[in-house]
Amino acid sequence: MGLKEAMAAIAAKPKDQLTYTDVADTYVYYVRVDFDPVGIKFCMDEAEVSKYKINAKAKAKLTYCQHLAMARGGHKAMFMPANMLLCENAEPVFGFRELDKEKDTKRHMKYLRSEELAWQAPVGKAKLPLGRCYGIYTAPLATFDEAGLDPDIVFFMLLPYQAYHVLNDYMAANGRSSLTFNHTPNSAVCSGSVWAYVNNTANMTTMCAGSKTSGKSDMSMLNLFIPGSQIKASAAQFLKRISETGGPSVLGKGGEPWPGMDVCKGCPLFKYEAV
Q1: CA gap 151, 272 in Å, rounded
Q2: pTM of the entire structure?
Q3: Distances (CA, A) of 94 to 97, 118, 161, 199
Q4: Model confidence over 179-233: pLDDT tens digits?
Q5: Which of 114, 126, 204, 244 has the fewest C-beta atoms under 10 angstroms from its C-beta?
């Protein structure tokens, strides 16, 4: 079976039969995302760790951004215990430690240049309950089929116009006509993930200084987070729209085969007929 036939077979499935592999293949094929979608699982039960399918282990502490980079580009499925996180700003976000007013204010002064704001920033970030999360499992989304688990969050690193397409179908699938996102001076990826998880809604953030350097994020790309409980419905809506219009693009009348395809609207030079 060729790739085109395989995608047609996925599109023909009832939405409740889509696998996470199907979902990943859908976005890679139709949206042309550069990186694999990543599944994120916040471990709230230590006994659950044995269920994770792991193919790599960090030999030294890594940042959360680096774990996601290994998953999206290196096909690494890894578990990060709380004591193996190399990021002081991410620690309170995941509930790994309490905030320290003096130190956390100092960490945010370079961004906001005001002691009051520099303290408000870490206080206001989305957080998991203190001491509840034992660690974080990150893996290519397809790995969750093998593990028999559902991700808490599905993470995409993608271009703005790719994100536009993903979010349109997300809104249609979830009965939403608009979305609001959460931006913080740093912790774009860690707090961005947790905000989507806590609020059970999509979130989109720019890079932050930490994710740009340690996560080696491209400056032209965005971080997109979709709750795991909503990703299959979003992909099913995307496939439904493609089947109805003929292609993934929403430009013009829609239905073009490339999601970013663009021609001048109404230009007399761009007229075609089937032959």
Answers
A1: 44
A2: 0.94
A3: 8, 19, 30, 15
A4: 999 999 999 999 999 999 999 999 999 999 999 988 888 889 999 999 999 999 9
A5: 244
